[in-house]
Write a structure and sequence with these properties.
The protein is α+β, with helices and mostly antiparallel strands. 36% of the residues lie in helices and 19% in strands. It has 34 helices and 36 strands. The strands form 11 sheets. Strands 10, 11, 12, 13, 14, 15 and 16 form a 7-stranded mixed sheet that branches. Strands 23, 24, 25, 28, 29 and 30 form a 6-stranded mixed sheet that branches. The chain binds one RNA strand through helix 10, strand 11, strand 15, helix 16 and strand 30.
Length: 989
RNA sequence: GCCCUGGUGGUGGAACUGGUAGACACGCAGGACUUAAAAUCCUGUUCGCCGAAAAAGCGAGUGCGGGUUCGAUUCCCGCCUGGGGCACCA
C-alpha cells in the first residue's frame, strides 16, 4: 500500500467537516487558548504561496495546543470592505458584494485544500449587515464618549454634560480646542447647536474640519498610515492636503496608554519601536516670547501697545539651551505672520509664502532645500533681553507643537544649517563641545554664556529652566505627540455607513434598534458632490429617516451622513466577534469574552504596525473603559511572519532593426532569445560572444528572408513565468506554448544545449510572473508536504524568496514515514512488540525536541527533528506500534492528514486530535555525561562533567597534567570540566 | 541621516543561556537494484595541503579588522554590506 495523498487528504478534509471536529465551545474545565491570523482581504488574485505561511504556523500552534489539552479558538474570516473591490466594480461593472463573495469562496476552497482547522461556523465578514451592525454600534459608543483626563479613561458623554451643568468646563480642558472655556451658567445659556458643537470637540469619534490627505484618483481621503511617500498606499496615486469635513477618532487621547501598554504585551522590539515612533512622545516646555514693540512703530506708531501684548509661543524639548537662541522660526501657515511682518519685509514674506504654497508635500520631502524669509520682527529673550529675529521657514511644521520654534544653531543640526545659509551669527553656549563647523546635540556639556545657568550640566538645567519659566508665568511643562487623530471617513460606497443623521448642523446618532443601517443596493458608485461620497447621490436612502414615521425623535427632515467608514473600522474589533459570532443582542456576550479573553497568539505581517494594530488597540481600550470587555490589550503576543518574495526568471530577447528589399517582411514575428551566460559575456564586451550573437541572429533571420541585412540590435530582459523554468533552465516546450503560443516559433541561442534564465528576487506579483500557486503544489505533492515544506523553508519570521526545488525532500520524508507502517509488498509491517531502549531513546528525544521547537515557533527545526527521528527509526527497522503511535501524535499539527490516516490504520477510532499527547520521559534518553565530585587542594569543588567513554584514569590524568587546571587549582573555583570523546575541550569557572 | 534586523558550504538553513561549527534538506558525484526508467537504498560532499589511491594527518575557516576569554557564529569596539522602518516632529 502506497502513500496516496490524493485519496487521503480530501477524505479527511470531508470527515473533519462532517464530524464538526473543529467546533469549539465554551469549556471552563479546560484552559483556553486563542490563536488568530490576521484575516485576509479577499482579493481577486487568490492565494499565492506567501499567504499560507502564517496560516500554517497558526494551524500548527492550534492543533498542538489542542493536543496539549487546551480549549482552542482558531477562527477565520474576511476583511471584506475596501477600495479594491469598489475600484473593480467601477471598472468592470460588477457589484462589490458579488465580486467579494466570489473571491471569498475561492479563498475558502484554497484554504480547505491545505487542511486548516478553522471553525468555519465562526466565520465573520465585515461587509455583512449582521457584522457591521456592531461596527456601527461600537462607533456610537465612541461617539457617545469622551476621554476623562483625570480618570485617564473613556467615560459616557452624559457624565460630561452633568459636569458642564455643574461647573462649566473648568475641570475638563477641551481636547479639540483648548481655548474654549465656559462656566455652568454660560453652558446653560448656549443654544442646542452651540452645546452640540462643544460636545463634538470632546467626543472620541467626532466630526470636524481639518487638513486631510485627499486622493483625487480614488476620490477619497486617506489616513496617515495609508499614505506612503506622498502617494496612496493602494494604487500609488498622488495625495494632496485638503481641508474637508471629516470624521475622526480621537486616538491622541490614548497616546500615553498606547505607549505604556506596549510594556505589557509581547510584540517584537521592532514592532514596538515602530509604534513608539509613530506615537512620537516628546517632553519639553512651551515658552512664550514677547515680541518687540519697536518693530511695529515704523508701520503704525499707535500699535505699540497692542504689539507689546503680542507673544510668540514656541515648543522645545531643550529649554536648557534658551541662552543659545539666535533666531525664531515660525511655520509659513502661522497666524501671527500677518500681524508681525514689517512693511519692509511684507513683499518678501508674501513671495515666500506663495512659493511654499506652490510646493507639494512630495516636493518638500524629496528635495530638502534650506529656504526661509525674515519677517522683520524680533522676539525678546525673557532672561537676558536679547532681541531675536523671527524668521519663516518650511522646515517648521504647522501641525506639530505650536508651529513655532526657538532655534539654537549650536545645538541643532537644522538650525545650524539655517543659520549658516542666512548668515545668522551663532552663539556658543556649550564651550568646547561646539567646534563651529557642526551642531552638537549633546545633553552632557557644561553650559556657558548662559546667565544663571552657567556651569550647570545641560541635562540638569532642563528642570531648572522649566521651573523658572513656570514661576515667571511665561512657560510650562508640555508633552507632545507626533501622532494625529485618525481620519475615519471615506467618500466611498463600499464601507460601513455612519449611523448618524444630520439636521441643522447637528449630528444625531441612530437608536440601537435602528441598526444595522444598511448600505443601499445601487448600480452606480460615482462620487457625490464636493467629496461627499456616492451615497449622497441616493436621496431616497439619505432621507429614509426624514419621514413622519421616523422613530428618531426630533430629527425629522434630517439627512443621513453620506461618508462611509474606512477599511480599518471592521478590522478593529473582529477578534471579539469570533468569540460570539451569531449574537444578535450584543457584539459579544461579556461572559464569553471573559472566557476567551485576549488573543494569546496573533500571527500576521509587519505591514499593519501603525495602522490596524494601533487602531484595534485603541478600540479595545475604549471598550474596556466603558465596561464592555474585561481586558484592555487585544493581543497578548504577536508573531510576525516574514514575507515570501518571488524569485523572478528572465529571458533575453533580441530586438533588431534591419534593411530589406521587402520592407513588409513579417520579421516582427521573429523572436530570438539568448541564454544568460552569453548575455553576460556580451555585457562584458566579449568579442566571441558578439560574433556568436550576430551569427545567431543572421541564421535566424535567414529562415524568413535572405535579403535582410541586420542594421542594429539590442538585448532586452523580460520576465518569464517561473512555473515553466526548472531551476534556471527554461522548459523550451512549455515556453513555446506560453502566452497562447506567441513564442511558438522562437529561436534560441543555447548554452550546452540548455537555455539558462536570469534570476532576481522581487516582490511576488502576477505582473512579474513569479507567483507560485499553492493549489498546483498541493495537487502534485499533497497538502501535508506543502505545509511541512513551507515550514521547513526557514524561520517563519524571516523573509525569503520562494523556491520550490527542495519540496521533494519533504515529500520523500513523508513517504519514508509511511513505510514505517506499510511495505509495498508485505503490506502492514507494524508490530505490537515492546520497544527497545534505543527505540525509546529516539522517541523521547524527538518528543522533547518537537515540544521545545513548537513552543518557541521554531517550526523549521521541528521538521528537521521529525526527519532525524524517521531516519533513525528506519535504520533501526523499528515498526513498533507503541513508538509509531506517539510519533503520529507528535506530527499531527504539521501533517494532519497522513497522521489521521495512519492513526486509523493502526486501529484507532476517532480523531487523532483527541489522543493524549506523549509525555517526555528523561529516563529513556541515556545521559551523555556523568558528574563526578572533585576534590582539589583538599577542598570539595563543584563538579566535573566528562564524556561517558572517558575512564576514571583518564580523568585523573587529565586533571593533574593539564596546566589550565593547575592554574585554577591555585585559586579560582572550578565548576566543570567538559570532556568529549575522552578529550578535554573546556573548563568553566 | 536616525532606529531596528540580518551576513555561516554550490543552495535553503542548524548550533537553546560562550563549549566537537556546518544538524536537516536541496543540489552534485559515485554505487546498488532494474532489460530500461521511475521509485528506493548506500557512499561521499566547507576549503586548502600531503598523497596513485585508501586510511590517516596537517592548516585555515561563520562579512572585514581588532579586543575580552582556557575557549567566540555567540560578548565588546571600529568598519563593510543586504533587508525593513522613520525621515525636517524642534
Amino acid at each position: 500500500m502506497e502513500y496516496n495523498f490524493t485519496a487521503i487528504e480530501p477524505k479527511w478534509q470531508d470527515k473533519w467537516k462532517d464530524d464538526g471536529i473543529y467546533k469549539v465551545n465554551l469549556d471552563p474545565s479546560k484552559p483556553k487558548y486563542y490563536v488568530l491570523d490576521m484575516f485576509p482581504y479577499p482579493s481577486g488574485a487568490g492565494l499565492h504561496v506567501g499567504h499560507p505561511l502564517g496560516y500554517i504556523a497558526s494551524d500548527i500552534v492550534s492543533r498542538f495546543k489542542r493536543l496539549k489539552g487546551f480549549n482552542v479558538l482558531h477562527p477565520m474570516g474576511f476583511d471584506a470592505f475596501g477600495l479594491p473591490a469598489e475600484q473593480y466594480a467601477i471598472e468592470h461593472g460588477i457589484h462589490p458584494k458579488k465580486s467579494t463573495e466570489t473571491n471569498i469562496s475561492n479563498f475558502i476552497a484554497q484554504l480547505t485544500k491545505i487542511g486548516f482547522c478553522y471553525d468555519w461556523d465562526r466565520e465573520v465578514r465585515t461587509c455583512e449587515p449582521s457584522y457591521y451592525k456592531w461596527t456601527q454600534w461600537i462607533f456610537l459608543q465612541l461617539f457617545n464618549s469622551f476621554y476623562n483626563r483625570q480618570q485617564q479613561k473613556a467615560v459616557p458623554i452624559t457624565e460630561l454634560i452633568k459636569a458642564f451643568d455643574a461647573n462649566g468646563n473648568a475641570n475638563h480642558i477641551c481636547p479639540g480646542d483648548n481655548s474654549i472655556h465656559f462656566t455652568a451658567a454660560e453652558w446653560k445659556a448656549y443654544t442646542e447647536k452651540e452645546q452640540q458643537d462643544i460636545l463634538m470637540n470632546y467626543r472620541l469619534a467626532f466630526c470636524g474640519y481639518g487638513e486631510v490627505n485627499w486622493c483625487e484618483a480614488l476620490g477619497t481621503v486617506l489616513a496617515n498610515d495609508e499614505v506612503v511617500n506622498g502617494v496612496s498606499e493602494r494604487g500609488g496615486h498622488p495625495v494632496v492636503k485638503k481641508k474637508l469635513r471629516q470624521w475622526y477618532l480621537r486616538i491622541t487621547e490614548y497616546a500615553d496608554r498606547l505607549l505604556t501598554g506596549l510594556e505589557t504585551i509581547e510584540f517584537s522590539e521592532a514592532m514596538k519601536e515602530m509604534q513608539t515612533n509613530w506615537i512620537g512622545k516628546s517632553s519639553g516646555a512651551e515658552i512664550s516670547f514677547k515680541l518687540q514693540a519697536a518693530s511695529y512703530k515704523q508701520e503704525q506708531s499707535n500699535l505699540q501697545l497692542a504689539a507689546c501684548s503680542l507673544e510668540l509661543l514656541v515648543y522645545t524639548t531643550r529649554p536648557d539651551t534658551i541662552f543659545g537662541v539666535d533666531f525664531m522660526v515660525v511655520a509659513p501657515e502661522h497666524e501671527l505672520i500677518e500681524k508681525i511682518t514689517t512693511a519692509e519685509q511684507k513683499e518678501a514674506v508674501e513671495a515666500y509664502i506663495t512659493y511654499v504654497k506652490s510646493r507639494s508635500d512630495r516636493e518638500r520631502q524629496a528635495e530638502k532645500k534650506i529656504t526661509g524669509c525674515f519677517t522683520g520682527a524680533y522676539a525678546i529673550n525673557p532672561f537676558d533681553g536679547r532681541e531675536i529675529p523671527v524668521w519663516i521657514s518650511e522646515y517648521v511644521l504647522a501641525g506639530y507643537g505650536t508651529g513655532a520654534i526657538m532655534a539654537v544653531p549650536c545645538g541643532d543640526e537644522r538650525d545650524f544649517k539655517f543659520a549658516n545659509h542666512f548668515n545668522i551669527p551663532v552663539t556658543n553656549i556649550i564651550g568646547d563641545a561646539f567646534d563651529g563647523t557642526e551642531a552638537n546635540a549633546t545633553k552632557d556639556a557644561i553650559l556657558s554664556n548662559s546667565g544663571f545657568l552657567d556651569g550647570m550640566k545641560m541635562r540638569d538645567a532642563i528642570e531648572v529652566v522649566i521651573n523658572k519659566l513656570e514661576e515667571m508665568g511665561i512657560g510650562k511643562r508640555k508633552v507632545n505627540y507626533k501622532m494625529r487623530d485618525a481620519a475615519f471617513s471615506r467618500q466611498r460606497y463600499w464601507g460601513e455607513p455612519f449611523p448618524i443623521v444630520w439636521k441643522d448642523g447637528i449630528a444625531y446618532p441612530l437608536e440601537e434598534t435602528q441598526l444595522p443601517l444598511e448600505l443601499p443596493d445601487v448600480e452606480s458608485y460615482s462620487p457625490g458632490p464636493e467629496g461627499e461620497g456616492p451615497l449622497a447621490n441616493i436621496p431616497e436612502w439619505t432621507t429614509q429617516f426624514a419621514t413622519p414615521q421616523s422613530p428618531l425623535q426630533g430629527v425629522r427632515g434630517g439627512m443621513l451622513e453620506t461618508n462611509t467608514m474606512p477599511g480599518y473600522a471592521g478590522s478593529s474589533w473582529y477578534f471579539l466577534r469570533y468569540m460570539d459570532p451569531h449574537n444578535d443582542k450584543n457584539f459579544c456576550d461579556r461572559t464569553i469574552s471573559d472566557y476567551w479573553n485576549q488573543v494569546d497568539l496573533y500571527i500576521g505581517g509587519t505591514e499593519h504596525a501603525v495602522g490596524h494594530l494601533l487602531y484595534s488597540r485603541m478600540w479595545t481600550k475604549a471598550l474596556y473603559d466603558l465596561g464592555h470587555i474585561g481586558f484592555d490589550e487585544p493581543f497578548r503576543k504577536l508573531l510576525n511572519q516574514g514575507m515570501i518574495q518571488g524569485s523572478s526568471r528572465f529571458v533575453y530577447r533580441v530586438v533588431f532593426t534591419y534593411d530589406s528589399e521587402f520592407k513588409n517582411a513579417p520579421l516582427t514575428n521573429v523572436f530570438m532569445f539568448i541564454s544568460k551566460n552569453t548575455v553576460d559575456e556580451y555585457n562584458n564586451n566579449s568579442v566571441t560572444a558578439k560574433e556568436k550573437i550576430q551569427e545567431f541572429i543572421a541564421n535566424s533571420i535567414a529562415k524568413y528572408s535572405e535579403s535582410v541585412k541586420l542594421r542594429n540590435y539590442q538585448i532586452i530582459e523580460t520576465h518569464v513565468d517561473v512555473n515553466i523554468v526548472d531551476g534556471v533552465e527554461l522548459d523550451i516546450e512549455a515556453f513555446k506554448k506560453w502566452r497562447n503560443g506567441e513564442y511558438a516559433n522562437a529561436e534560441f541561442l543555447f548554452e550546452d544545449g540548455k537555455y539558462i534564465c536570469g534570476v532576481e528576487v522581487e516582490k511576488m506579483s502576477k505582473s512579474k510572473f513569479n507567483t507560485v500557486n499553492p493549489d498546483t503544489l498541493v495537487e502534485k505533492f499533497g497538502a501535508d508536504t506543502f505545509r511541512m515544506y513551507e515550514m521547513f523553508l526557514g524561520p517563519v519570521d524571516q523573509s525569503k524568496p520562494w523556491d520550490t526545488k527542495g519540496i521533494e525532500g519533504v515529500h520523500r520524508f513523508l513517504k519514508k514515514l509511511w513505510r514505517l507502517f506499510f511495505d509495498e509488498t508485505k503490506g502492514k509491517v507494524w508490530t505490537d512488540a515492546a520497544p527497545t531502549a534505543e527505540e525509546l531513546k529516539v522517541l523521547h528525544r524527538t518528543i522533547k525536541k518537537i515540544e521545545d521547537d513548537t513552543e518557541r515557533y521554531s517550526f523549521n527545526t521541528a521538521v528537521s527533528g521529525f526527519m532525524i527521528c524517521v531516519n533513525e527509526l528506519s535504520d533501526l527497522k523499528c515498526h513498533k506500534k507503541e513508538i509509531l503511535e506517539s510519533l503520529l501524535i507528535l506530527i499531527t499539527p504539521y501533517a494532519p492528514h497522513i497522521a489521521e490516516e495512519l492513526w486509523q490504520q493502526l486501529g484507532n477510532s476517532g480523531s487523532i486530535l483527541d489522543a493524549s499527547y506523549p509525555v517526555f520521559n528523561a529516563a529513556h534518553v541515556t545521559e551523555t555525561s556523568k558528574e563526578y565530585p572533585v576534590s582539589i587542594n583538599g577542598k570539595m569543588r563543584t563538579s566535573l562533567t566528562i564524556a561517558l567513554d572517558a575512564t576514571e584514569d583518564q580523568v585523573k590524568e587529565l586533571v593533574l597534567t593539564n596546566e589550565l587546571v593547575q592554574k585554577w587549582m591555585e585559586g579560582k573555583p572550578l565548576k566543570k570540566l567538559i570532556f568529549v570523546k575522552g578529550k578535554m575541550i573546556n573548563v568553566v569557572v
